[in-house]
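Hi, does anyone understand the following?
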Amino acid sequence: MGIKHGAPQVPSPLRVIIYFESTGWFNTTTDEKTNEILPQLNEVIQQWKLNGSELLGTFDRDILTAGPAGNTGWHACFLYNVPDLQTVADMTHSFRATGLDMYFRLEATVGRPFFLLEKAE
């Protein structure tokens, strides 16, 4: 029999992991990457710093992989504390609004700190 406990509580701020996959990036030229795509990506990431989100960490799989993401469906992930669900939606929408969704795919998952490793304050 498992441990009895109540329903998980939705944290505030939200704990969000954003999976990042390169898609159309592989079909672009070096000039497009350097002069168009990367500056736009950097601008969007800088804007995320202003929306009340806190970057907790990142993880890039590129040490032992190259090319398309494969079965995992992501190249990197970003772990954030985010103020609310609308901010998460705004973050993913920023890729649509800027056209970055032609080159990258984002997927956000909302969770909470793992209770055995991170105690609530």
Q: What stands out?
A: The helical segments are 30-48, 85-98. The CA atoms of residues 34 and 58 lie 22 Å apart.
